[in-house]
Design a protein that fits this description.
The protein is α+β, with helices and mostly antiparallel strands. It has one domain. Helix content is 20%, strand content 48%. The protein has a twelve-stranded antiparallel β-sheet. It is globular.
């Protein structure tokens, strides 16, 4: 479902012994409507293109953690057809569909309530898209590829796909971050590089107040350079804002995420 994935499966390595750690809670605000916006800028067919998705979120306390109610409100792109059609085919069927994710006490998404209902709506949306466009159109071909991808997913794969864009909110929830020199990381920089590339670097705190931590991740390897800046709430444990940039030769991409109170 993601238009592009910059980093996956980060792992901590070689934390300096002298570094102090700061515990991060998981206490999301409940009963409050939040807007989660993702803007990604990347080249498509030689043109710098914007991909935007806006979601409405609401947390609710549950017996073993929290329930996250999430609805994709809108998507938008100014990309040429080569990028726009796959993006619309993948996300279009989810616009307006409310999903109810179950989170444990540490901020890990463990299940999706009414998975069958949600998935049936996704499939119905794809079928409607296929019916609305001629078989030789780029939209029809994109929808066919997405439909084939979805058909081969396991239950775990479906959950990972539907929850993928929400996971960055919980990167630090229920864990800790290192002060001082920072913490070593090793991870993979993924698509749209063509194949995953191993990158390595450091995550460190660049500024802090009683309510917020600013962190910076700098990673490199295999000709790829990645910088990620996080604004982390010390009260909720959620990533409130995030800026990513990736450079690989002539390829350059940026992504911004923001979580604010809904208007």
């Amino acid at each position: 479902m993601r238009a592009a994935v910059f980093l996956v499966a980060a792992a901590a390595i070689a934390q300096p012994a002298a570094a102090e750690t700061i515990a991060i809670p998981f206490a999301p605000p409940t009963g409050t409507a939040l807007t989660y916006r993702i803007d990604q800028h990347r080249p498509v067919a030689g043109q710098a293109s914007l991909f935007r998705a806006v979601r409405l979120l609401r947390f609710e306390k549950a017996s073993n953690g929290y329930m996250l109610h999430a609805t994709l409100q809108s998507i938008d792109t100014d990309a040429p057809a080569a990028g726009a059609e796959p993006y619309r085919a993948a996300l279009g069927p989810l616009v307006g569909v409310e999903m109810h994710f179950q989170l444990d006490g540490g901020g890990r998404i463990v299940a999706l309530g009414d998975m069958d209902t949600v998935w049936n709506k996704v499939q119905a949306g794809l079928s409607a898209m296929l019916a609305a466009f001629p078989p030789d159109s780029s939209r029809y071909k994109a929808a066919t590829r997405v439909q084939a991808l979805f058909a081969g997913l396991s239950a775990e794969g479906k959950l990972a796909l539907l929850a993928g864009e929400l996971q960055p909110l919980f990167l630090f929830s229920g864990s800790d971050v290192a002060d001082g020199p920072g913490r070593g990381l090793r991870t993979m920089a993924g698509s749209p590089l063509g194949k995953p590339v191993e990158v390595e670097g450091t995550l460190k705190i660049t500024a802090q107040t009683p309510t917020r931590l600013d962190l910076e991740e700098k990673l490199a390897g295999g000709g790829v350079q990645v910088t990620v800046r996080y604004g982390l709430s010390r009260q909720t444990g959620l990533v409130q804002d995030q800026e990513r940039s990736l450079a690989a030769g002539a390829l350059a991409m940026t992504e911004s995420r923001s979580l604010i109170a809904a208007k």
